[in-house]
Amino acid sequence: MRQRAFEQHHRDDWEQLRHVLNDLDRPRRKRQLNSVATGCLPKLYRAVCNHYALVCSRHYSPALEMELHELIVRGHRHLYKGRGAHLWRLVIFVSVGFPQVFRKHIAYFWIATFLLLAPGLLVGGYCYFNSELIYSVMDDAQVAQMEAMYDPSNRKPGRALDRSAETDMLMFGHYISNNIGIGFRTFAGGMLFGIGSMLLLLFNGVFIGAVAGHLTRMGYQDTFWPFVSGHGSFELTAIVICGASGLMLGHALIAPGQRTRIESLKWRAADALKLVMGAALMLLVAAFIEAFWSSSDAAIVVKYSVAAILWLFVALYLGFAGRGSHGAG
Amino acid sequence: MLDTARRYEIPEGIELGFRVAGPVVRACAWAIDLLIRAGLYLAIAIPFSFMGGLGLGVTLIIFFLIEWFYPVVFELRQGATPGKKAMGLEVIHDDGTPIAWSASLIRNLLRTADFLPFLYATGLISMLLNQNFKRLGDLAAGSIVVYRDKVGVRPELPSVKPLHPPQAMMRDGGRTLLAFAERSAVLTSDRRIELAEILSDLTDRKGEEAVAELHAYASWLAQGR
């Protein structure tokens, strides 16, 4: 068959496909075709793929080849586009997918926990017994500011004095941008063969431990511990999970196993992303608790009770949510 | 290695082609996005700054969202950030399908690693070492930045009286003849003649006559006698 005859014979199919694609390119509200008309996209698309293969093998003109190529690329994009229902998938992810992925890779979580906890306890213990050590972790101004934040005479614990007048909303914004940013950076640090994540975990452990040890030694335990114990449940766990996701990337790069390094990275990154996104949602909850609950002036016993409930909730959620259900994640 | 054209096979059993985008054009796209983001920051910070602590809190949250999710939102909506779109680029998966949630989030969260130690130095090295110009985020996400095909007007074959080409040109030269005839309209007359005279040994013609001869062959190839 000659090119001209071929074109005349199939031109209708191409025009119809173009018509459907033009309609699909419009925003959903402005579409003119009904679902029956757009529903024939796969059939038309496959027909045109067939024509394209013929055009190539019969050495028809490059312009015709390009015309069909463009149609097929557009059709391919529409046919293989991701599914919608984002909100529902988010619900499934939170209730089932995230805890499942967490348990699947729990080894990384324990390693990350150790990396945060070990220096935390070590430095914290030293700072508790030694009043000088805190100054090797942070400088004088930082120590003074931190002491002022948790001074029992401070009306709103956990906030520096010059900030106490500002609203909870400001602190909410600050905690979100600061903490979730740290979480994401910890994840990205995994690309440096896991060293970035590891350092961030160690650094956070040292810093948090030093502050806790120092303040307890100062006798500020009744302002400090009730403040941090509540949101700490979500925040510390989430930071450790971010660290775990970074360690996963590092593991994929250092020990790719049977795969090539890049394939192994791609394979693990998918699950690591689920971990870090779940952790980001946990940090969002933590920011909310920290801004609106932790700084409130509830009685210490109430704060400790709420903290206990929150820790228990986090443990139950990560340990049991989504057990026994399949096909998620 | 210098050719940026890549082909991938799709499930329908045919191969599609695309051209990967290099560091320079991507840096330009990034710079455009940077300007847009700076504009957004200003447009948000100024009105909210009159609202005290509440306004500041909201500003911080929006800044955070823009910093991390600006590229993700646009990549999911239209396959490219406004900067990339302006430069005619788009992001797709390695297998040619449109970018989805997971890959877009991975490649954009890992920007932090690519940025190290300053101004995407790591990303640039990764791009130069990789034949598809992938930065670290692209490697982990399995994504690739390519040129968006421009929808061009299809050039027409010159309509002249068909003439049977010599047998020597029939086998492999056919497609080249058609390509020449279709491109004739965008070539200068000198260039047309120069190209056509390469085949003077076969056509025995010179100058515009050689061009017309080849057009006649192309016409025969497309529609027969």
Automatic annotation (TrEMBL), chain A:
Keywords carried by this UniProt record: Membrane, Transmembrane, Transmembrane helix
Transmembrane spans: 86-102, 108-129, 192-216, 236-254, 275-294, 300-320
Pfam families with a match to the protein in the record: SpoIIM
Name used for this protein in its record: Stage II sporulation protein M
UniProtKB/TrEMBL annotation, chain B:
Major place of residence: membrane
Location in or out of the cell: Membrane
GO cellular component: membrane
Pfam families to which the protein is assigned, alphabetical: RDD
Membrane topology: Multi-pass membrane protein
InterPro entries: RDD (IPR010432)
Domain RDD: 20-142
Keyword entries, A-Z: Membrane, Transmembrane, Transmembrane helix
Transmembrane segments: 40-66
PANTHER family: SLR0254 PROTEIN
Protein's name in the database: RDD family protein
Organism whose genome encodes this protein: Sedimenticola selenatireducens
